[in-house]
Amino acid sequence: MPPSAEHQPAAPSTGGVQSLERAFDLLERMADAGGEVGLSELAGSSGLPLPTIHRLVRTLVACGYVRQQANRRYALGPRLIRLGESASRLLGAWARPHLARLAEETGETANMALLDGDEVVYVAQAPSRHSVRMFTEVGRRVLPHSTGVGKALLAHLPDGEVRALLARTGMPAVTERTITSPEVFLAALEQVRESGYAVDDNEQEVGVRCIAVPVPGAPTAAAISVSGPAGRVTDAARDRFVPLLQETARDLSAALAGTRPASA
Prior knowledge:
Helix 2 crosses helix 3 (50-63). With 264 residues, the protein is of the alpha+beta class. Helices cover 45% and strands 17% of the residues. The strands form 2 sheets. Strands 6-5-4-9-8-7 form a 6-stranded antiparallel sheet, with helices on both faces. It has a 3-stranded antiparallel sheet with strand order 1-3-2. The protein has 2 domains: 18-77, Winged helix-like DNA-binding domain superfamily/Winged helix DNA-binding domain (Arc Repressor Mutant, subunit A, Orthogonal Bundle); 82-257, 2-Layer Sandwich (Beta-Lactamase).
């Protein structure tokens, strides 16, 4: 497996603990490979010697972060679940000040969602000030083909990966406006790539429109959105919301990277 664009062979340590840097790099490579790899694949993608890979993976197995499968390949271990759940909660907490500002600026409910396996999960929300507003609760899971955040999350995946996901989940019609054709959905993703934003126009819930953008450089695939009644989230409102969403996404990305304090 050749090195990915995200993961080139590890550079020399710059003051940190090199074995820790390498161990976390291997975990990320395993995640990028779908969660299960062979040692030779890790050696090929990381550029590390096979004995070093073996020693690091053996330590990760002993700690419960990696497990050896019956086929002698290695998979991410169950102990990572607790870390992931805690990190997701923190991600939501870091996002809330940004979403609150976005809700204040747009007057509509602001959400943050992640791609978790084949589903979209909402991890943070700031409600609209209007009495008539959206009540997509934190923790709710939906299929990506019927949502604006789902389109924003899938737009930058290769078409083959999107087709495979749609084949696994199916494309059930939630409303009469839901996209149920893979070809139409892929065309919609192309529009997202061209415009920089995604729209859910009565596709998840009748009478509701949602505008969404991806969060660039997030540690996991993430998107933010504003949603509200179709009578308020008009095309004119969309044109005003998109720059606000994109600015918020950039600010949130910077906050998650630790390059500047989170906005209040």
